Amino acid sequence: MEIIVIWSDSAIEELKNIYEYFNTKASKKVADKITNAIVDKTIMLEETPRIGQKEEYLAHLKQEIRYLVHRNYKIVYIIEENIISIATVFDCRQDPIKLKIKNK
Questions:
Q1: Does the predicted TM-score (pTM) go above 0.85?
Q2: In a 10 Å sphere around its CB, with 0-12 CB exposed, 13-18 middle and 19+ buried, how is residue 89 labelled?
Q3: How many Å apart are CA 17 and CA 79, to the nearest integer?
Q4: How large is the angle between the packed helices 28-43 and 9-25, nearest 10 degrees?
Q5: Contact between residue 41 and residue 86 where contact means Cβ atoms under 8 Å apart
Q6: Which of 57, 70, 76, 90 sits between 20 and 30 A of 36, alpha carbons compared?
Q7: Alpha carbon of 102 to those of 24, 27, 38, 58, 88: distances in Å?
Q8: For the chain, what are the domain ranges?
């Protein structure tokens, strides 16, 4: 069974925000490196979708929600049969309660 990884609109928007932040505060090279590394991290989900830990702040939801970590970013994803949906890219330096509110 082939597994497909898709990105939600909000996850794409978060990735764009991360890119813009580092492009402004550091350089295009740094922005490219960080955002490409985040995307690259999700590629492994095609082979091992349950590699990430279960997201405890979203455990109250019925879906299977897990996450991967890259630097300060939590890549939150939902497993539904053969589809992995990247739900958001969350900056772990924020209050974790924001993750709970954001994804209700």
A1: yes
A2: buried
A3: 24
A4: 150
A5: no
A6: 57
A7: 25, 29, 20, 10, 9
A8: 4-102
Note the CATH number of domain 4-102: 3.30.2310.20
3-class DSSP assignment, residue 78: strand
Q: Residues 5-24: what's their mean pLDDT?
A: 97
79 touches 49 (CB < 8 A): yes
56-70 pLDDT tens trace: 888 888 899 999 999
Strand pairing class (53-54; 64-70)? antiparallel
* Residues β-bridged to residue 79: 64, 84
For residue 20 the two structure tokens come to 């813009």
Write the pLDDT tens digit of every residue in 74-88: 999 999 989 999 999
Contact 57, 100 (CB under 8 A): yes
